[in-house]
Design goal:
Number of strands: 13
Number of helices: 5
Strand content: 25-35%
Structural class: alpha+beta
Helix content: 10-25%
Radius of gyration: 18 Å
Distance between the termini: 18 Å
Shape: globular
């Protein structure tokens, strides 16, 4: 994955290329909030910096490039958290608009996971009801399926069940998966640890 880090970060990497990475310091929670040593970050400038410099290495470990130092990120679930804005468009927790929805996955505790051009991400729980409404509508807004929630709830991970829903009129396949299988299935590491690669 190609990263577009801040210019100051790129310059720091060029100047100090071998600064050791840090682990266990940064965390992304299930609502897309960043936490440092368990404390939520509230400073808007810091949040924007973290969002701009968020990336993934070749081993599926997500991190923020903080100047010359890479701070690996512990994920409460997935590397992306998706939410709906006020116009029902899908955005990442880093404020990038998702233009393509490839699939939807329902885990065994009822969470909705969405795969877009950015990768797999958890739908923020506050947007679940509205997301279900959109999934049952044609692009023009006509309701065509008022039973989406029941169909998704009946998917079983073990049986490789799938169903189809609509996202603004576009058919999307929905499959079931066990929560424990998500990192392996989508190629990411939820809790990176230092390894010699």
């Amino acid at each position: 994955m190609q990263h577009q880090f801040d210019n100051q970060v790129i310059r720091a990497l060029e100047k100090w290329p071998n600064v050791p990475a840090c682990y266990g310091w940064l965390r992304l929670n299930r609502r897309g909030r960043w936490l440092i040593q368990g404390q939520p970050i509230s400073h808007s400038g810091a949040i924007k910096f973290l969002a701009r410099n968020y990336g993934c290495d070749q081993h599926g470990r997500w991190f923020v490039q903080n100047g010359p130092q890479r701070a690996y990120c512990d994920l409460d679930y997935t590397p992306w958290i998706y939410r709906l804005d006020g116009t029902d468009q899908l955005y990442t927790h880093t404020e990038k608009r998702a233009l393509e929805m490839y699939s939807v996955v329902v885990d065994d505790v009822g969470d909705i996971l969405i795969e877009t051009e950015y990768g797999i991400g958890l739908l923020e729980d506050r947007d679940l009801a509205r997301f279900m409404e959109i999934m049952g509508r044609q692009a023009n807004g006509d309701i065509v399926d008022d039973d989406v929630a029941t169909r998704l709830a009946n998917l079983k991970a073990k049986s490789k069940d799938s169903t189809e829903i609509l996202w603004y009129g576009k058919p999307i396949v929905v499959q079931a998966i066990k929560m424990a299988d998500v990192p392996t299935a989508f190629g990411f590491v939820a809790s990176p640890v230092h390894t010699d690669h």
